[in-house]
Every structure is written in structure tokens, then in C-alpha cells.
Design brief:
By secondary structure, this protein is an alpha+beta fold. Helix content is 39%, strand content 25%. Helix 9 crosses helix 12. The N and C termini lie far apart (79 Å). Residues 429-443 have low confidence and may be disordered.
């Protein structure tokens, strides 16, 4: 094992910078988190400040440089605190060569600093290279002496770096730390983050990629490296994750003290996650404000506000009720000031911004949290899995809840948010959003709370009985208690006992009828409110009264479908554990009459072969006719027997165990088939990702299979009739049509361009001479933007020294304008990008581009003549 020394975060940073300074690298200060690059919101990588050099846009002052660059990334914000090394703020140590040394020297120094400066044993190091990079492979093997077993070839996704679709790019080589070298060199899997952590990435920028994807060698080959400071600290300080390093843990300790938590290490996982989020986010916001970012609702200001609000919320989860961020921020400032002096210099501004944002958010957080809790409960009670866009917008508009915060809390409750609906509501009036939200009041629950002391909990008989005699205990109309209700009325009914299964554990409620003397009520859904079963339905005949004796009868066909699908989910989970990964666990489910949905924790997509194997395994168990063994056991005994419990689910002292011996054993209150053979057949419809680390399988089973097949058979027959081919010939026919369509589209684009050129040629006679230049300003009817651009370039070529401005309305409500300027016009101070952007504003749009050629758009087609007239006037004025 390695005997590498303990080093503080500051020591790691200093040793890295000094190592490269001694090798003629200029130590440069960290650039601001607000990048010069207008295409990037925040500084996200150590190389970003040098991007113009790598792209050949700027001549470097030094041939070699080294930095410790502060960075912000929020693309994986939901994983902060949940994984070992996801952070929003981090420091990237880097050494850079601008056309100076290359692979051999970069690799040699990378190995030297890892083994001699940081003391890593070669036994603890594994390297990866791009699979086609023989040069790097040979250097590692022959020059450095790394054994072939510890050099792994990786594909382009992992080991080929590119700044974009075109431009400088090249292979890279990564150095990994191996925490368990005793496991040997056989079957090394660098994706196993329990054993390996990548800490140093060496990028060899040696090619230029053109628009066609062709690679040509660069004249100046560059080196761009990145070593994660927090990852190095984790390794050298021998702690289990980045958060427990001296770079972050003091911040966590401060937050824990404020929350009255004596020992972080003995806290439960939820507490640790909240403390880690606070530790990471406070560190991030301190640096952001130090770089003069202010909280707002747009751009990087919104990122700052979002992070601050997440800190406040996680503080609340820890039981902190008042303002606390500035206290935690003081620790973050103290930790950072030696490396980043501007942190202390900006202390007053940092604390003032944090105090203001925290205070404002706390004012509305209480009410917003309570409302969101009510919304979540109602969504679950209704058997839904998604919070409506209207509700999410009301939380945002009235209580200051960012959409992301609502989504985060929803995800903790296995729910999603209708983001499209939220965006729609953003376009509507606030009053309409408020009015729509009034439907969220839990009127049924409110009425039950008042009646609870007068009625008993509903007795559920549905495990053994499909029908029973019952008494009407409560009758609600629109959530209000009534003594009677007539035919045609939507009602909610509480009985003293019922065979109807109430929605729970992912299984939807039963359907059926409640009937009596001259009374028929169709029951469409059943939900559980506390200990009461609420039957939602419509009175179809007669008058129903409180106290009536009725017969409650479930729809047996629907129940059989639900039972088949519910048992199928148990078999599905067992098959996933057996074939894919024993560690797979349920993350949510839906069992309805026509289909089933099963969400499970898995870090990757299943292969097509695995999906097929899982389906075949479930069908094998179905055909083997395993009988169900159902028992009620003490929770401890059930778990001791190996019964699978759903993570996060609360269980009583006694639990119901559904056991198909040698196949599946789960804690479950749902209804199931008595023998797997009753399911008949099982078919997976889809497998997809729904959240980070969560996959979803949708499937059908039992009688629902026939519905599924009928729909598909109808589609196939319809397509066969339309294409006049046999079903088995459909794929080839569709492929042929797709090819024909692509060819037709290419021909159409060519014809459009030719038509635009033909139209534009007629404009040559309209060219006006202004000073030493010629100008053409005109409108072409029905020309698409790309063809308009081609026409402008062609006209400019023909007139030579001058300017061409063309406008078109390619479709209703859409305006396109193009400006093409010659170099002589540019010398007059006119730039096509700025010029066309200003003109497009007249049409309610904007745009821009290069000084010689630019394109813009607009929405108001009626203003295009005025915009072109303005262009004519401006050109005559500037060039005359």
C-alpha cells in the first residue's frame, strides 16, 4: 500500500505550483469566475482562460504556465452531497504548454509530481490512454516503466478532448489512484469508483478538426492538464470523500455546531447530505460574490441565488430556523483568504449579500414549504407522480421557490414536476395562476379531520372478499359533508368496511359499484386519507344517504389486471437483481389496470440483451407456476428472512410479506395473484432513464397484453395497407422512403438556393453608387434564411466594393435579414453584425455575426419595409 504523506489543501496547491515554477512555468493567478468568454456563463475549467490561445486567437505571453483555477459547475447539482466528489465549486490545478513541450515531457512530469512530490507508490497508480494513441502508450510503458496491465486503452468518449465540433482537439491520458492495489491487475475497471479515482488529466492538443470531421496536425502542439485539488486532498488526507478534507470540512463543522449536531460522523445520511450541501454551496457563493456576482433572476446571478436558497433550505432540514449563512461564510472566507486575498477584501460585500438574500428568502420559505408539502401529499393521494406546472408556478411566483428547488423536493418524494406546464404558466398572468391554484385545497382531508373523532377507521376486507355489506358513514360532495346526494352527483363516500383497495404502494385504487335499494354508485377510484378509505364516484341512480346499508362490489376484471401487474413488478425486481445487479433497489412504481411502471436505482442504461434476458426470466417464473405464500410477520423477522423493503418506506411493527419461494420475497400491502401462472405473460415496452442514477421500465402483463397487441396489430395492418406491402416488408419500405425523403429535401434545398440566386441576380440593376461604394438594399419574397445568405454573398461578389442588405419573410410571423459588407466598407467603421442587429430590432428581433457577413431575425413582418428603408438611409449616410 502507498505511504504517501498527509498534506493540507494549501500544501498541495503550493507544491504543485512550485514544482512547475521550477520547470520554467509562469505561475498565473486564478481568473475570475466571470469568464471573458461570452459563450460561457461561469468559469468551468482550468483551461478556459487560455482558450483564445489554444484556438490561435491570441499570442501567449509565456510558453509555459501553471495555475490553480477556481471553477463553478452546476450541471450535477443534484448529486452534491450524495456522491464522494460532486461539487459546485472546485479548484483545478493545471500546467500548460503553448507550442513548447509535448507528450513525453508532460507524461514524465505528471509521473514525477505524482510519485516524488506527492509520494504515490507506482503500485497505487493506473493510467489510461486514447485507444489509438500508440505514442502515449509507448511512453508510459517504455519511458516511465508502467506495466501493460496498468495502462488501459479507452475510447474517444473518455480519452479524446475537443473544445467543440471543430477546432483544436487531441487525445488525453489520465492518471488514476488505486485504493486497492492488493486486488491485483486482472480485470481492472476504471469505472469502479470504489477502487479508482482519476486525479490528473493530460490533454495533448495536436490536431485541428474541420467541419467534415477531418483531423490535421496542428503547427503548434499544446499541453492542457487538470488536477483536481479536492480529489488530491481526499487521497492524501485519507478521508472517504472530498467533503471531509480540510478544504471543506471546517465549513461543515461550523454548520453542524449552529445546528446543534455534536458529531458529523455519527449522524444519519440525510443529515450528512445537508451538511455537505451547505459546505460546498457556501464555499461557492463566497467566491462568486467575491468576484462581484450579485443575486438575481437571470444568468449567473440566478445561479448564485439558487445556491443560497439551497443552503437556507438544507439549514432548515437540519433544524436551523434563523439566519446562519454569514456565520458559516466566515469559516469559508478564513479558509480561502491565504490563496485568494480578494475574499477577505470583499468580506463586507459577501456578508451583506448573503444576509439580504437569506432574510428575503426566509420570509416566504415557511409558507412555501407548507404549501409544497400539501401539494405533494395531494399528488400522492391522487395516485399521480407529477406536480402540475400551475402549482410549481404558484410556488415560484408567490413564495419565491425556484423551479429547481420544487423539482429537488419533488424528487426526494419520488415525484416529478411538469416543467412544460410551468413554462406555460410563466407566460400567463399571475392572477390566472393564483386562481388555478385554489383547486389544490385539500377539502376532502379537511372535512375528514373534522369528522375523524366521530367515525372509526375503515376496515379493509379486500384481500379475501370481492364484495361486502357496508354502512355509509360519511358522504362528501365537493369535500363538504352532506346527509344525502341525488343521481348525477359526484361524491366521496366513507364506509365502515370495504373490499375496495385504496391506492397505495404504487397500486391504483379499485373500481366497482356501491349499490342499495334503488341506488347505484359507480366507483372510479379509492384513496386512503389517514385510516379512512375514500371512494370517489358518481351516483347513477337513486338518492344515497348517510346511514344507508349498501353492497360494495369491486370490478373483479380490473382487480385481476392490477394483481397481475403488481406481482409482475415483484418478479421484475427479482429478475433485475439476478441478471443486472444485486444492488438494484426500487425507486418507485405504478401498478394500474393496463400497465406497470418500475423505477429502480442503477447508474447505467440496460443493454438490449439484458432487457431481453430480464423479460425472459420473468416469463420463465410465470410458466413455472410459483404459488404465493402471504404472511403477516414482525418487521424484524421479515427482514431476517430476506424480505425486500422499499427504501424510505415507513413500516409498522408488523408487516405483510408476499413470498414466491425461491423467486421473490417483499414487504407489500398490495393485492397479488395466488400463483404466477395467473399472470399469463409479461412484456417489457421500454427502458429509459428518468433521473440521475434512476432507470424506468414500463411493461404490460396478463390480460393487458391483449390490449397492447391489438393496438400494435392495428398499427401494423394500417401501415401495411398504406404502403401496400406485407408486414415483414415494412422496415425495408420505410428505409426506402426515408432515403427518398432525404434526397428530395437535398434537392429542394438546392432548388431554393438556385431560385434565390436567380431572384437576386435581377437586383444587380438596382445597385446604387454611394461615394466609392455600391449598395443593394432589397426584399426577396419567400426566401429561406440560408438561401438569403447565399444570395447576399453572391451579390457582394458581383458588385465588389460595397454593401448588400436583403430581407425576406420565409413564413408568417418570421423575418430574416442578411447583411454582407466588403472589407472597404468595414474600414469605414461599419460591421455587418452590429448593423444588421440594429436593423432587426425594428422588426422586433435581433441577431449578429461577423463584420463581413451577419444574419438576424424578427417577428413583425409588417415592419420589414421600414427596416430596409432604415438600412438604406444608414448606409448612404455612412458611406456617402
Amino acid at each position: 500500500m502507498s505511504s504517501n504523506p498527509y498534506l493540507s489543501g494549501n500544501e498541495i496547491r503550493t507544491k504543485f505550483l512550485n514544482f512547475y515554477a521550477q520547470r520554467e512555468h509562469q505561475i498565473l493567478p486564478s481568473a475570475s469566475l466571470v469568464p471573458e468568454d461570452p459563450t460561457v456563463l461561469l468559469t468551468i475549467a482550468g483551461m478556459l482562460p487560455f482558450k483564445p490561445i489554444f484556438l490561435g486567437q491570441r499570442t501567449p505571453e509565456f510558453k509555459r504556465a501553471t495555475t490553480s483555477q477556481k471553477c463553478i459547475r452546476t450541471n450535477d447539482i443534484e448529486n452534491v452531497g450524495r456522491t464522494k466528489r460532486h461539487q459546485t465549486f472546485f479548484e483545478m490545478l493545471g500546467n500548460f504548454s503553448f507550442g513548447d513541450y509535448f507528450k513525453e515531457q508532460a507524461i514524465a512530469w505528471g509521473w514525477e509530481i505524482s510519485t516524488q512530490v506527492f509520494g504515490f507508490s507506482p503500485q497505487n497508480l493506473v493510467v489510461s490512454v486514447f485507444e489509438e494513441d500508440e505514442e502515449a502508450y509507448n511512453i508510459w510503458r517504455d519511458k516511465i516503466g508502467v506495466t501493460e496491465a496498468r495502462i488501459k486503452r479507452m475510447g474517444a468518449d473518455d480519452n479524446f478532448w475537443a473544445s467543440g465540433p471543430t477546432g483544436p482537439c487531441g487525445p488525453c491520458s489520465e492518471i488514476y489512484y488505486d485504493f486497492h492495489p492488493e486486488r491485483g491487475d486482472d480485470n481492472i475497471d476504471l469505472e469502479d469508483d470504489t477502487r479508482f479515482i482519476e486525479f490528473y488529466n493530460l490533454v495533448f492538443m495536436q490536431y485541428n478538426r474541420d467541419a467534415a470531421g477531418n483531423l490535421t496536425p496542428l503547427q503548434n502542439k499544446n499541453i492542457d492538464t487538470g488536477m483536481g485539488l479536492e480529489r488530491m486532498a481526499q487521497i492524501l488526507q485519507k478521508v472517504p470523500n472530498n467533503y471531509e478534507t480540510d478544504l471543506i470540512f471546517p465549513i461543515i463543522k461550523t454548520a453542524a455546531e449552529i445546528a446543534g449536531i455534536d458529531d458529523y460522523h455519527t449522524s444519519d445520511e440525510k443529515v450528512k447530505v445537508s451538511l455537505k450541501v451547505i459546505g460546498d454551496h457556501v464555499r461557492a457563493v463566497v467566491h462568486m460574490i467575491a468576484d462581484e456576482i450579485r443575486a438575481s433572476n437571470v444568468g449567473r446571478g440566478y445561479v448564485l441565488r439558487r445556491l443560497i436558497r439551497r443552503v437556507v433550505r438544507h439549514g432548515r432540514l437540519l433544524g436551523i430556523s434563523g439566519n446562519f449563512i454569514t456565520q458559516v461564510a466566515e469559516t469559508a472566507i478564513a479558509l480561502a483568504e491565504s490563496a485568494y486575498p480578494n475574499i477577505r477584501q470583499r468580506e463586507a460585500a459577501i456578508k451583506a449579500e448573503l444576509e439580504r438574500e437569506e432574510t428575503n428568502f426566509l420570509k416566504t420559505l415557511d409558507r412555501g414549504e407548507k404549501l409544497l408539502e400539501d401539494i405533494i401529499q395531494q399528488v400522492k393521494q391522487q395516485g399521480q407522480t407529477e406536480i402540475s406546472g400551475e402549482s410549481a408556478f404558484t410556488l415560484y411566483d408567490t413564495y419565491g421557490f425556484p423551479l429547481e428547488l420544487t423539482q429537488e423536493i419533488a424528487e426526494e418524494n419520488n415525484l416529478t414536476v411538469d416543467e412544460a406546464g410551468f413554462n406555460t404558466e410563466m407566460q400567463k398572468q399571475v392572477e390566472r395562476a393564483k386562481a388555478a391554484h385554489e383547486t389544490i385545497d385539500l377539502t376532502v382531508q379537511g372535512s375528514l379531520d373534522k369528522l375523524a373523532e366521530h367515525i372509526h377507521a375503515t376496515e379493509f376486507l379486500g384481500y379475501t372478499q370481492a364484495a361486502t355489506t357496508a354502512k355509509v358513514e360519511v358522504l362528501l360532495v365537493n369535500g363538504v359533508a352532506e346527509e344525502a346526494a341525488e343521481a348525477g352527483t359526484e361524491v366521496q363516500i366513507l364506509l365502515n368496511q370495504t373490499p375496495f383497495y385504496a391506492e397505495s404502494g404504487g397500486q391504483i385504487g379499485d373500481r366497482g359499484y356501491i349499490s342499495g335499494d334503488g341506488i347505484v354508485v359507480r366507483v372510479e377510484d379509492v384513496k386512503k386519507e389517514s385510516d379512512f378509505f375514500v371512494h370517489f364516484g358518481r351516483i347513477e341512480r337513486g338518492t344515497l344517504r348517510v346511514g344507508d346499508t349498501v353492497t360494495a362490489q369491486i370490478d373483479a376484471a380490473c382487480r385481476r389486471r392490477a394483481q397481475a401487474n403488481h406481482t409482475a413488478t415483484h418478479l421484475l425486481q427479482a429478475a433485475l437483481k439476478k441478471i443486472v445487479d444485486e444492488g438494484i433497489s426500487q425507486a418507485g412504481s405504478l401498478v394500474s389496470f393496463d400497465r406497470l411502471r418500475f423505477d429502480f436505482n442503477c447508474p447505467r442504461a440496460l443493454t438490449a440483451e439484458e432487457v431481453q434476458q430480464v423479460e425472459e426470466q420473468v416469463n420463465t417464473w410465470i410458466s413455472e407456476a410459483h404459488s404465493a405464500k402471504i404472511e403477516v410477520l414482525p418487521l424484524a423477522e421479515a427482514k431476517a428472512r430476506g424480505a425486500v423493503a422499499m427504501f424510505g418506506e415507513k413500516y409498522g411493527e408488523e408487516v405483510r410479506v408476499i413470498d414466491f419461494p425461491s423467486v421473490s420475497m417483499e414487504l407489500c400491502g398490495g393485492t397479488h395473484v395466488s400463483n404466477t401462472a395467473e399472470i399469463g405473460v409479461f412484456k417489457i415496452i421500454s427502458e429509459a432513464g428518468v433521473a440521475s442514477g434512476v432507470r424506468r421500465i414500463e411493461a404490460v402483463s396478463g390480460p393487458a397484453i391483449l390490449d397492447y397487441l391489438n393496438v400494435r396489430d392495428k398499427v401494423v395492418k394500417d401501415l401495411s395497407d398504406r404502403f401496400k406491402v406485407k408486414p415483414e416488408e415494412l422496415p425495408d419500405r420505410i428505409t426506402t422512403l426515408q432515403t427518398e425523403l432525404r434526397n428530395a429535401e437535398k434537392q429542394l434545398e438546392t432548388l431554393k438556393g438556385q431560385l434565390a440566386i436567380a431572384k437576386s441576380d435581377s437586383l444587380l440593376d438596382t445597385a446604387q453608387t454611394v461615394g466609392d461604394h455600391k449598395i443593394i438594399v432589397a426584399q426577396l419574397e419567400g426566401v429561406d434564411p440560408e438561401s438569403l445568405k447565399t444570395a447576399a454573398e453572391r451579390l457582394l461578389q458581383k458588385i465588389g466594393n460595397g454593401a448588400v442588405v436583403l430581407g425576406s419573410v420565409p413564413e408568417a410571423g418570421k423575418v430574416s435579414i442578411v447583411a454582407a459588407f466588403s472589407p472597404e466598407v468595414n474600414k469605414k467603421g461599419l460591421q455587418a453584425g452590429k448593423f444588421v442587429g440594429a436593423i432587426a430590432k425594428i422588426c422586433g428581433g435581433g441577431g449578429g455575426g461577423r463584420p463581413n457577413l451577419a444574419q438576424a431575425g424578427g417577428r413583425d413582418e409588417s415592419k420589414l419595409p421600414a427596416a430596409l428603408a432604415q438600412a438604406q438611409t444608414d448606409l448612404q449616410s455612412a458611406l456617402g
